[in-house]
Structure formats: structure tokens, C-alpha cells
Amino acid sequence: MNPRLRWKTRAFAAIVILSNAFGNLLLTWGMRHGAEEITASPLSFIHAIVNPWVSLGIVLLVLWMLSKMFLLSWADLTYVLPVTAFGYVLNAALGRLFLGEVITPARWAGTLLIMAGVILVGLGTPHSEEPT
Amino acid sequence: MKAWLLLAVIIASTVTADLLQSHEMKRHGEIHDFRPSGLRLLLVTLARNKYLILSVACMAASFFAFMALVQVADLSFAVPASAGSLVIETILARLILKEHVNSRRWMGAALVAGGVWCLSL
After folding, report:
1. How far apart, in Å, are the Cα atoms of B9 and each of A16, A26, B3, B6, B41?
2. Is the CB of residue B18 less than 8 Å from the CB of residue B49?
3. pLDDT tens track for A84-127
4. Which one, A43, A44, A121, B27, has the greatest CB density within 10 A?
């Protein structure tokens, strides 16, 4: 893989991971601190979105969506999914740090497995062709 | 029961959105121009693609279901459990997008899926 593509892939993977993890955190924080409870009514969604934490979370999740779309313009879906799965580890850590959620030994084991998967796929190329 | 129903909505809509996005972005080609004018032009082009619009609608459905899910479940459950889509997507990427999934990627996806399952325990 040429160095420019490697750098670009890593930079966009980092943006995808960080924007998703912090977007989810802000969304959850907002939903638990002041946002109206979601019901079947569309109005309840609109009221929830007005909450500043939820709004900021949505901005980050829009950034996540766009950066993932850009990454998919040159990298395979089967490369992007495992590599950006590091976000799950970050989500668990942020949930522990900011939301007081419990990280059990099973969750730490899950973290290690995800890291192994991310490293394994991340060492390969983002776009592979069928062997001829 | 409500949590599992929301989870099913999240997984189905995420899989559809990712497959549509990957297909359409590959068709568009690699993005090189990251200047503001280039990005503006790109966003206008992408906003006119009906499959990408459909993928965004699927993501919106997934997003609202996720918002409802985090009210009834822990974030550290909601996020990894919704990643059950990863295995389904890997199989569908091979079958529909015709991606070459080598052994390294299969193994990586399996490790991540196993890890996600552990996180949800």
C-alpha cells in the first residue's frame, strides 16, 4: 500500500472511531440528563433533539457518517468494519468513565478480542482484489 | 422485549445502510479533493444519489431506535449488541458486493464478533 493511502486510511479511521464514540456518549448523556423520554410520538424525538448534549452528539454522528462514507470510497466494507470496531472498546471505556457503567471481566475480555481483530485486519490492505 | 425489538431494527437498518453506502461510494470512486470547495461539490453530488439518500434514511431509523434503546439499556450493552450486524455484513459484503474476504478478514471479523458478544455479557 502506498504511504499516502495508508496515512489517509488511518486518519479517516481515527475520525470515524472518535466521532462515533463521543457522539454516542453525548447522546446517552443528554438522553439521561434532561431530555424528554422517547415515546411513539414524533414530537418527543424533536423535544429530545433540542437538548444541547443531544444536539452536539448528533453533530458528531453526522461527522461520523460522512467520514465513514469517505473512507468507503476507497476501502472495502470488510476492512472498514473490523478496523473501526475499536470504537466499541472506546464506547465501553467512556461509559465506564462518564456514565458510571460497570465493566465486568467478560467485557474486558471482549475488549482484548476486539483489539486483536482490529490489529489483524488493520495490518492488511484496505482494498483487496479477487485473486486471479 | 422492547430492547430486543429496538435492537432488531438497529441491526436491519445498519446492514442495509452500510451495504448501500459501500456500493455507491465505490461507484463514485476514491475521494481526493478535501478542499472546502471540493467537499461542497462532493456533498451536492452525494445528496443527489437516491441510494445514498435511502442509506441515510436507514441510518436515521437506526439512530432513532438507538436513542430509544439507550433509555432502556446501558450504553455498554447497546453499542456492542448492535454490532451483531458485523457478521451479517461481512457475509453480505462477500455475496452482494463481491468483496474478496481473505482469511485475515474472516478471522478479524470473527474475533471482533466474539469480543462484541463478550462486551454484551
Report:
1. 22, 22, 10, 5, 33
2. no
3. 888 878 887 888 888 787 778 888 888 888 888 888 887 888 87
4. A121
Answer whether A128 sits within 8 Å of B89, measured CB to CB: no
* Residue pLDDT, tens place only, B38-97: 889 888 988 899 999 999 999 889 888 887 887 788 766 776 666 667 778 888 999 999
Is residue B103 less than 8 Å (CB to CB) from chain A?
no
Residue A57 in grid coordinates:
452528539
Q: Over A52-115, what HEC string results?
A: HHHHHHHHHHHHHHHHHHHHHCCCCHHHHHHHHCHHHHHHHHHHHHHHCCCCCHHHHHHHHHHH
Q: Judge whether A20 and A26 are in contact, CB under 8 Å.
A: no
Residue of A nearest to B85 (CA): A81
Looking at the structure of chain B, the number of domains it has is 1
Describe the crossing of helices B103-119 and A86-99 by its angle, rounded to 10 degrees.
20
Burial of B91 (0-12, 13-18, 19+ CB in 10 A): middle
A132 falls in which pLDDT band (50, 70, 90)? Answer: very low
Q: Which residue segment(s) compose the domain that B98 sits in?
A: 2-119
B4 CA: distance to closest CA in chain A (Å)? 16
| CA gap A85, A113 in Å, rounded | 11
Domain boundaries, chain A: 3-122
Q: Which of B46, B71, B75 sits opposite A24 (nearest CB)?
A: B75
Tell me which residue in B29, B79, B117 faces A91 most closely, judged by beta carbons.
B79
